[in-house]
Amino acid sequence: MNTSVPIVRIVDDDASFLKAIARLLRASGFEVKTFASAAEFLLQPELDIPGCVLVDLQMPGLSGLDLQEELAKEGHKLPVIFLSGQGDIPTTVLAMRRGAEDFLTKHAPKEDVLDAVKRALDRDAFERAGRARMEALQACFATLTSREHEVLQHVVQGKLNKQIAHDLSIHERTVKLHRTSITSKLKVSSSAELTKLWIEVSPIKK
After folding, report:
1. Which residue in 55, 104, 113, 135 could disulfide with 11, CB within 3.0 to 4.6 Å?
2. Contact 24, 52 (CB under 8 A)
3. Distance between CA 120 and CA 104 in Å, rounded?
4. Mean pLDDT within 187-200
5. pTM for the complete prediction?
6. Which residues have CB under 8 Å from 72's CB, separation 6+?
7. For residue 85, is it within any domain?
8. pLDDT tens per residue across span 52-87
9. What percent of the chain has pLDDT over 70?
10. In this predicted model, what pLDDT tens digit does every residue of 127-151 receive, in sequence order?
């Protein structure tokens, strides 16, 4: 299987519905894998492959909501689309609050199902790109020395080289050298860009 192609995982204990929805998605050009239960799905070794999950709400054993919760606990961020024989507002609200992409009944038009899957795959691709960018930024920041980190913290506060030199008890020329090294390692050309990256990778302090 080509691991670069997103996979739509379908989880449903209704064998006939599982077969029908899988046929629809494959005919529409999607890569599909089917599972007869949430427990079977959670045993698969391919949860890190891009894609989404189309899951029945009510199943024996672990329900669709249970599956959504387990994925969150394990840190898997695959978008989840719920399908239900009968929808109810409280369950729908709970699923959406937990980040579900959509909540559809099993009688929904096929166009709605296909649209939800496309949105889920787009969301997954967008979020993966964001996480990859963050990891790359964090890797760049990790190359800074302890002194460079100290200088950086002063730079993002808007301090001048002379002020930084005084605060750290080092020569102003040394501050300039550290700033040059920092901008080179982080691939930026200005203090404004540097500050923007710092805000992006720094945890929000409450």
Report:
1. 55
2. no
3. 13
4. 89
5. 0.77
6. 98, 99
7. yes
8. 999 998 899 998 889 999 998 888 889 999 988 766
9. 92
10. 999 999 999 999 999 999 999 999 9
Cβ-contact 70, 62 below 8 angstroms: yes
The residue type at 196: K
pLDDT in tens, 118-131: 999 999 999 999 99
Nearest alpha carbon to residue 31 among 10, 62, 59, 12: 10
The number of folded domains in the chain is 2
Q: What pLDDT was estimated at residue 80?
A: 94
- Examine the domain organization and report whether 120 and 154 are in the same domain: no
How far from each other are the two terminal CA atoms of the chain, in whole angstroms?
45
Strands 80-84 and 7-11: unpaired
Specify whether 112 is located in the same domain as 30.
yes
| β strands within 40-181, DSSP E | 51-56, 80-84, 102-105
Do 149 and 120 have their domain in common? Answer: no
Q: Are residues 29 and 53 in the same domain?
A: yes
Query: Would you say 52 and 9 are in contact if contact means Cβ atoms under 8 Å apart?
Result: yes
* Token output for 189: 């050309």
- Are 123 and 60 part of one and the same domain? yes
Domain check: are 19 and 109 in the same one? yes
- Domain of 85 in residue numbering reads as 7-133
Long-range contacts: 3-6, Cβ < 8 Å, 24+? 3/46, 3/49, 4/50, 5/31, 6/30, 6/31, 6/49, 6/50, 6/51, 6/52, 6/121, 6/124, 6/125
